[in-house]
Write a structure and sequence with these properties.
Keywords: Hydrolase, Signal. GO terms for molecular function: carboxylic ester hydrolase activity; dipeptidyl-peptidase activity. It comes from Planobispora takensis. Pfam families: Peptidase_S15, PepX_C. The chain is an alpha+beta fold and about 525 residues long. The strands form four sheets. It has an eleven-stranded mixed sheet with strand order 1-2-3-5-4-6-7-8-9-10-11, sandwiched between helices. Strand 2 and strand 3 form a beta hairpin. The protein is globular and about 75 Å long. The two termini are about 45 Å apart.
């Protein structure tokens, strides 16, 4: 297996992400708002009803100090109790991350406590990666809020973006007081997120680990697992997977369902860190009140403008969710279709009663003939660049592109459909079924589905990686792969192209030197790609 080597594009993206984490507006504000004592109070001059802001230190699990801010409604209310929202911060972001939204919530009558997760910035301890200590910290913050603010113990909610989303979901499994959760750009299955298809998501993971070292204090356990992850140490794979499963809300689903919190999930179609498939599977298995929202973008980009105070659908629905489930407001959110999706190619929101209802029919595109490729280099077909490609898709409707006729057939297996006269509304999860024969026992393949225009230009609809180990060289075996879920409209007159190659800058590949792959379609077991459609 060739070891991954630094690429200029990857290095540039990692550097840019680190700069965004460290020098974001929130972190720049942190320097001016850093408390000189354990408690600092702030109130807007000339506005007696303005929310009050306190910067405090909260004792977490084991007495670990957690840097936090508390925003409470202004005015005199005669000892009235308010619903409380707890906001764990995102990975590498200071505790001022949510101040803009916290003030809006406080003006609407909520007590809001936002805290820096352990191991980051001014909080103590080591980074636990949403482990048992982080879950215990969340409960300690709820304890503190109920003792030190006018918070109502019967109306406790949690929310967060990314890292804060995962911790909020996990806390709802272990603390029955949490009655409502809004988890934005988070994960339900950590294994299926950074290790989907048994393939390491190298660019995304490098950004997480790199920013963690810059802004926090990684634990020895985290460092050990990440060394094994990036070095592809197969003998430690089972240990790493067990570590990740403990940190996966899906592992604790029965506890979440027993507690019955109202859960709203939000994610992006182009998520580099936590692909939408794992969120959709988790959503389907929830039994309490639930809502799933999917939009164009990449990790945390759908929510980002709301953190700056700009109009934002995600945060608007977050407040509506809490208003209904913590305040009892009859705002209609419970009467809307619980699955809300915004297609990547334009148009308005679409509502569905279930996740499966996105797909009303499937079309199988046959993959005929035999394709042989060498696993020696990237063909040029890839999933893009972490964050950048998703942002371009979100704001410019510009997904990664290739010129399909120019892809080298020695390195890429390519199949194209006839032109689709009426266009296609792709909704849901594309599935690949084929027969593969490898010349080595290990290898990696990446499947890409493209929308191909009349000139041969292909725009990426979806993709996914798959890595195998322990296969018998020369023996044909089946390959079934789910690509990342999406909502994409293929124009009339365009074709679909499936492209399978063996390398992508987004992932660590496991192809030994000189390896080759053959894809075939036996008569008794034909190969195909299944396209989920909405009529």
């Amino acid at each position: 297996m060739r070891r991954p080597h630094p690429r200029p594009a990857t290095a540039a993206v990692v550097a840019a992400a680190l700069l965004c984490s460290v020098w974001s507006p929130a972190s720049a504000t942190a320097a001016s708002l850093r408390p000189a004592r354990d408690t600092v109070s702030v109130r807007t001059a000339g506005d007696a009803a303005a929310p009050s802001i306190r910067f405090v230190t909260i004792p977490g699990a084991g007495g670990t100090k957690l840097a936090a801010n508390v925003v409470t409604p202004g005015g005199r209310d005669g000892g009235r109790r308010h619903p409380v929202i707890v906001l764990p911060t995102s990975w590498s972001v200071p505790q001022v991350e949510y101040l803009v939204q916290a003030e809006k919530m406080a003006r609407a009558g909520y007590v809001v406590v936002s805290y820096n997760t352990r191991g980051f910035w001014q909080s103590g301890g080591k980074i636990d990666v949403a482990g048992p200590r982080d879950v215990a910290d969340a409960s300690k913050v709820v304890d503190w809020a109920l003792r030190n603010t006018p918070a109502d113990p019967r109306r406790v909610g949690m929310a967060g973006v990314s890292y804060g989303a995962g911790i909020s979901l996990l806390a709802s499994a272990f603390d029955r007081r949490v009655r409502a959760v809004v988890a934005m750009s988070g994960w339900a299955d950590l294994v299926a997120s950074i290790y989907s298809g048994r393939t390491q998501h190298s660019q995304a993971s490098a950004i997480l680990v790199g920013s963690g070292f810059v802004t926090g204090r990684p634990s020895a356990e985290l460092q050990r697992h990440m060394r094994g992850f990036f070095r592809s140490e197969l003998n430690r794979e089972a240990e790493m997977i067990a570590w990740a499963r403990v940190r996966s809300p899906a592992t604790h689903l029965s506890r979440i369902n027993a507690n019955g919190p109202a859960i709203m999930l939000g994610n992006a179609w182009g998520e580099s860190l936590f692909p939408p498939n794992q969120y959709a599977r988790f959503y389907e298995r929830l039994t309490g009140p639930k809502r799933l929202e999917l939009r164009p973008g990449d990790h945390a980009t759908p929510e980002a403008t709301g953190l700056l105070g700009l109009p934002n659908d995600v945060w608007r629905n977050c407040r509506r969710w809490f208003d209904h489930h913590l305040k009892g407001a009859d705002n209609g959110i419970d009467r809307e279709d619980p699955v809300r999706v915004l297609p990547r190619t334009g148009g308005g929101y679409e509502g569905y009663p279930t996740w499966r209802a996105l797909t009303s029919a499937t079309r199988r595109v046959p993959l005929t003939g035999t394709r042989r490729i060498a696993a020696d280099a990237d063909s040029g077909a890839n999933g893009g660049t972490v964050f950048l490609s998703g942002i371009l898709d979100q704001f410019a409707k510009a997904p990664p592109e290739v010129t399909v006729p120019l892809l080298p057939r020695s390195r890429a297996a390519v199949w194209q459909s006839p032109r689709h006269a009426d266009g296609l509304r792709v909704r849901g999860t594309v599935k690949l079924h084929t027969t593969m024969t490898a010349t080595r026992e290990s290898g990696t393949v990446i499947a890409h589905l493209y929308d191909v225009g009349p000139g041969g230009g292909g725009r990426l609809i979806t993709h996914a990686p798959f890595t195998f180990h322990g296969r018998t060289p020369g023996r044909a075996s089946g390959l079934d792969l789910e690509l990342f879920s999406t909502a994409y409209d293929v124009p009339a007159g365009h074709r679909l192209a499936l492209v399978v190659d063996t390398a992508d800058p987004l992932y660590i590949e496991h192809n030994p030197p000189g390896a080759g792959l053959t894809f075939s379609s036996p008569a008794g077991n034909p190969s195909y790609v299944s396209i989920p459609l909405r009529g």
